[in-house]
Amino acid sequence: MTTAYYTTLIIKVMIYSIFALSLQLLVGCTGLISLGHAAFFGVSAYAVTLLSPEFAAGNLLWLVPVAVISAMVYALITGPLALKTKGVYFIMVTLAFAQMAYYVFHDTKLGGGTDGIYLNTRPELRIGDAVLLDISSNYSFYVFTLGCLIFTWGFLTILMRSRFGAALTGIHVNEQRMRAVGYSTFGYKLTAYIVAAGFGGLAGVLYAIKDGYVNPELLSWEQSGIVLFMVILGGTSRLWGAMIGAAGLIFLQELFQSEAIFGAFAVHWHLTFGLTVIALVALMPTGLIGLPKQLSKRRGKKKPSPTVRSATVH
C-alpha cells in the first residue's frame, strides 16, 4: 500500500473524529442522544459544494464559515422543536428532521437528486489575489484537516472546563435539580445543540473537499448511526473517547475489507465486522477508553492476597 493510501486513511479518521467529537458534546456531555446528527454533516457538505465555482477554486475564507453557519441555522430551526421532547422521543424527532433534509436533496434537483453533485476543484485560502493556503495536494489537505481537528478538540476541551461546560454536565446528571437551582436548561441545551451542529458541519465540509463529491447518503440515518456508534465504542465519559472510537471503527472496516488478510471472504466483511462490534460492546461496556482500567482490575483479581500467599508457604 502506498503512502497516499495511508495519508487518505488518516485524513478520513481525522474528519470522522471531528464528526464524533461534535456528537460527543451532545451524547457524552449533555446526555442528548441524537440519531439525526448526519443532517448537519450533509447540509454543510452540500453547502460548500453548491457555493463553490464550477471550474475554479473557491475561497476557504468565506466558504467554510458559510457552510458551517448553514448547519447551525438548521440546528437553530429544528433544535427548539426537538428539545421539547426527551429520551426516545428526542431520538425519533432528530431522526425525522434528518430524514426531511435527506429527502430535500434526494428528491429535488437542488443537490443533483440521487446522483449527487461534484466539487471539481478544491478551494484555497485567499486574501485578494494572494493565495495563503493551497490544499490541492493530499499532504497540504492533511495538515489543514489536522489543524481543524486540533481546533475542534481545543475548543470543546475549553468549553467543557468552563462554567457552561459544568452546567451541561449538571444537566446530564440531573436536569430537574439544575432547573431547581435557577438554571435555564433549555437555553444551555439549545446552545450545545447548535455548537455541535457547527462542528458536525465542519466535518461535512472537510468530507466534501476530500472526496470532491456529495450525495444524499451523507444525510441518511445510517450515517448518524455510524457516528453515534463511534462515540459509544470509544466511550462517552471523555472527549477523546470519540476520537478513539472513530479511529477504531474505521480501522476495523479497513481490516475486514482487506483481501490480503481475509482473501475472498473479505466480500462478506459486514458479517465479521458486525460480530466484532457486538463482542466489543459486550466486553467493554465503558468503551475503548475503559479498556486499561478493565485490564488492571482483572490483573488485580488474579493476584493472590497476602493471607493466601502465606498459607501456601506454610
TrEMBL record:
- Where in the cell is the protein located? Cell membrane
Identify its membrane topology class: Multi-pass membrane protein
Query: Residue ranges under compositional bias (Basic residues)?
Result: 295-304
Q: Where is this region: Disordered?
A: 295-314
Membrane-traversing stretches = 21-48, 60-81, 88-105, 139-159, 186-209, 221-240, 273-291
Q: Does the keyword Transmembrane helix apply?
A: yes
Q: Which InterPro entries match?
A: ABC_transp_permease (IPR001851), LivM-like (IPR043428)
State the superkingdom.
Bacteria
Key words, A-Z: Cell membrane, Membrane, Transmembrane, Transmembrane helix
Keyword Transmembrane helix on this protein?
yes
A Pfam family (short name) is: BPD_transp_2
What protein does this entry describe? Branched-chain amino acid ABC transporter permease
